[in-house]
Amino acid sequence: MDKYKKNISFTLITVIIGFMLAIQFRTVKEPVVRDTRDTWQLREDLIKENELQLKLIREVRSNEEKISKYETELKQSKEQVLRDTLGELKAEAGLTDVNGNGIILIIEPIYEELLLGTAVSTVSPDLLKRLVNELNMYGAMQISIDNQRIINTTVIRDINGETKIDGHSLNGFPIEIKVIAENAKSADKLFKRMQVSKSADEFFVDNLRVKVVKPDEMIEIPAYQNTIRIRDMKPMDSEKGGNS
């Protein structure tokens, strides 16, 4: 009986000791597993954060480059607009060379009058003005007379018996008048109309004839060479302009 009790006591003590050892072993092992897992997780998170930071830095640099590029393009576009506008204004004012489809008028003395010994020294400024007005009425876009560009402020007048265009003397023949039309079709219409021109017929009174020629090639007209003088115009007061 005593032996049996001893066996039971020994068994219980063994179970208790084994249970305590199992609990202690588990308590020791669990923190090691948890710490190892947390360390790797932290390292992975740190790597991800670094990658995200690098990505953000690249995006910031890319956006800064784009902004700089846009600002440069905007500045250049504004300058280009100003240059284009200035070019258009110069073209409208006749300050640039032009070329296009058109016709050529040649004013020359009548050959028969030369045989009779009748001298023709100059062409009437009034006849030239009428001819220019008729050309404009029939769709002329640009005109030059004796290689002198005709613009809105051009003056054709007689000075001491000599016809001058903005100071340029017309003292020799033949006199060539170049005319540029809007396009080839307009140039063809202009050619046909000038062949039956009334103003051209009036040159016969002064022993002159006007020959109309339609060249196959483009016509070139030079830019206006003289200084354009503007009258009745003054700078605007900046204060008044700002308040308006």
Estimate the helix proportion, in percent: 40-55%
Mean pLDDT, all residues: 80
Low-confidence stretches: 27-33
Give the end-to-end Cα distance, rounded to a whole number of Å.
125 Å
Q: According to CATH, what is the topology of the domain at 97-221? A: Alpha-Beta Plaits
Topology order in helix (H) and strand (E) letters = HEEHHEEEEEEHHEEH
Tally of extended strands?
A: 10
User: What Rg, in angstroms, do the CA atoms define?
Assistant: 49 Å
| Secondary-structure class | alpha+beta
Protein name: DUF881 domain-containing protein
Transmembrane segments: 7-25
Family: Belongs to the UPF0749 family.
Keywords: Membrane, Transmembrane, Transmembrane helix
Account of the protein in words:
The protein is rod-shaped, with a radius of gyration of 49 Å. The chain has 244 residues and is α+β, with helices and mostly antiparallel strands. Helices cover 54% and strands 18% of the residues. A five-stranded antiparallel sheet has the order 4-3-8-2-9. It has a domain at 97-221: Protein of unknown function DUF881 (Alpha-Beta Plaits, 2-Layer Sandwich). The chain has helices at residues 2-93, 111-115, 125-137, 184-194, 198-201, 238-243; strands at 98-100, 102-109, 142-145, 148-150, 156-159, 162-165, 168-169, 175-180, 208-213, 219-221. It contains six helices and ten strands; from the N terminus they run αββααββββββααββα. Mean pLDDT is 80; it is low at 27-33.
